[in-house]
Design goal:
Layout lengths: L18 H14 L3 E8 L6 H15 L8 E8 L1 H9 L6 E3 L4 H8 L9 E6 L1 E4 L10 H9 L9 E4 L5 H12 L3 H6 L3 E4 L2 H9 L5 E5 H7 L6 E3 L8 E7 L4 H11 L1 H9 L7
């Protein structure tokens, strides 16, 4: 937490400082000492990487600020599906920064803003993976995956979790992948697909063994140090690129500064270590 204090105008000469001046100085100091809060609406897939980015940002911010008096900056994060957060922002939720898992939702917000100088920015590119806590996947390839999901042994009891394609960009990419393999309609008709609200829930279904497989974010697997036999990273050319955009909702100094940090070398290093691809 970074501390900032604002000096009261100029140094008060001892002989000229009146009671009124003292009162005003105390009031100014009290106001400056109030906490600043940066409110972030973040896509569910960021829950594994964003905390470490915030910690590093707070440390770097302290080091780079050489003033002795500093303001407190609290960073509050709400994680949910990108679509759900978009709906909250449209309804007036008091967020300062929106970090989506796609480009469409931030662009819609930008289109409706009066201030056209505030535009979306790309901060990460996600990877899609198939994960199972119960079925070994180390020998799977995209071709063998198709054979497995269409085999007679893949019964109605076999379940696959997928984030809601209408709300979660990772779910939309997973749906597009299954459609490209001509599997989506078949699995949907057989009720093999279990739709989760967001990518976090899709991961939990697979991680707890509630389903046999789950289409999840590669970053989630990096976070739990998943074993090689537990997942298959899908070829990045086999599904629509998961370019994740953000947009500043409330144009404050903390929102702009944190946005710059996300796109800095330091911020991008965190994303790379967490299993994300380089941004364009």
């Amino acid at each position: 937490m970074v501390k900032v204090a604002v000096l009261c105008g100029a140094l008060l000469a001892l002989s000229a400082c009146t009671a009124d001046n003292s009162t005003n100085a105390e009031s100014a100091t009290a106001t400056s000492a109030e906490h600043q809060t940066l409110r972030i609406a973040a896509a569910a897939n960021l829950s594994d990487v964003l905390p470490s980015i915030i910690d590093s940002y707070q440390v770097d911010h302290r080091v780079s600020d050489s003033t002795s008096d500093k303001s407190d900056l609290d960073i509050d994060v709400t994680y949910a599906s990108s679509g759900k957060l978009y709906a909250q922002i449209k309804a007036g939720a008091p967020y300062d920064l929106y970090l989506s898992a796609n480009q469409a939702f931030p662009q819609k917000l930008a289109d409706n803003k009066r201030d056209k100088s505030v535009q979306p920015f790309t901060y990460a590119r996600g990877q899609l993976a198939l994960y199972s806590a119960t079925k070994p996947l180390n020998d799977f390839t995209p071709a063998s995956l198709i054979n497995a999901f269409t085999s007679a042994s893949f019964t109605d009891n076999s379940k696959i979790s997928i984030a809601n394609p209408d709300l979660a960009p990772y779910g939309a990419s997973a749906k597009a992948y299954l459609q490209s393999q001509k599997l989506y309609d078949k699995l949907s008709a057989q009720k093999n697909l279990i739709q989760a609200e967001n990518i976090g829930q899709a991961f939990q279904y697979a991680h707890t063994g509630s389903v046999d497989y789950g289409f999840v974010a590669q970053s989630q697997l990096v976070a739990i140090k998943a074993k090689p036999e537990q997942f298959m990273t899908l070829p990045k050319a086999s599904y629509p690129a998961i370019l994740q955009d953000g947009i500043i909702i409330n144009n404050t100094v903390p929102a702009a500064a944190f946005t710059d940090y996300l796109r800095s070398d330091a911020g991008q290093q965190h994303f790379a270590q967490a299993g994300y691809l380089p941004i364009p």
